[in-house]
Amino acid sequence: MQRKLALAAAAVALLTAGAAWVTSNTQQTAAGFSAPFAAANAQETQAPEIVEMVLGEEDAPITVIEYASYTCPHCANFHKAVYPQLKKNYIDTGKVKFIYREVYFDRFGLWASMVARCGGEMRFFGITDLIYAGQKEWTSSGDPATIAQNLRKIGLTAGIPEGQLDACMQDADMAQALVGWFEENAKADDINSTPSFIIDGKKVSNMNYADFSALLDEKLGE
């Protein structure tokens, strides 16, 4: 079963209103998300560039885009049971170009995304692995402050310098840009549940490794 995504503005606005990571000083982003440790107001500047997180060869014969949420248990299971084999047998061998795009069901998924992206492209997928592996632990309390501290610990464990991590967690402009980027992608690719995949332009649902590899092998003519 996949986690369903509602994109209606009213539904998204209910996700969070006025919650902080550790302090009560927050910044409301578009769609109602709260940015952690944010300054009182986002700066009136050009929106930050959102970098696509990509693994594999640029000219690989197949492109796979994963849409996933860091708070989605089915996504965590995919990254535990399917993704390692997919990476070993298809991404690392030059058969698949893999793009990971975040989906935000709630503020906690947005916060996790900000921590993962704080490490840059070189560390992103490693931090993503840590976030999914510890999903039950860092989300279990349901308390925003505790969850924020847990995510911060993951970032520090991954080797992100403390000052850099705090700056990322306070970046209200980035939070707002990420939400807008997510909504644009989800609309363009008709994403309504996670995990979902776009394989060479065609949307497919979550599947086990055997089915995933069979689909890829068929496309590769193997």
UniProtKB/TrEMBL annotation:
**Superkingdom to which the source organism belongs:** Bacteria
Q: Which Gene3D superfamilies match?
A: Glutaredoxin
Leader sequence segment: 1-19
Give TM segment ranges. Answer: none
InterPro entries documented for this protein: Thioredoxin-like_fold, Thioredoxin-like_sf, Thioredoxin_domain
Q: Which UniProt keywords apply?
A: Signal
Residues annotated as domain Thioredoxin:
29-221
The job of this chain, per UniProt, is described as: May be required for disulfide bond formation in some proteins.
Indicate what this protein is called per its UniProt record. Answer: Disulfide bond formation protein D
The gene for this chain is bdbD_4
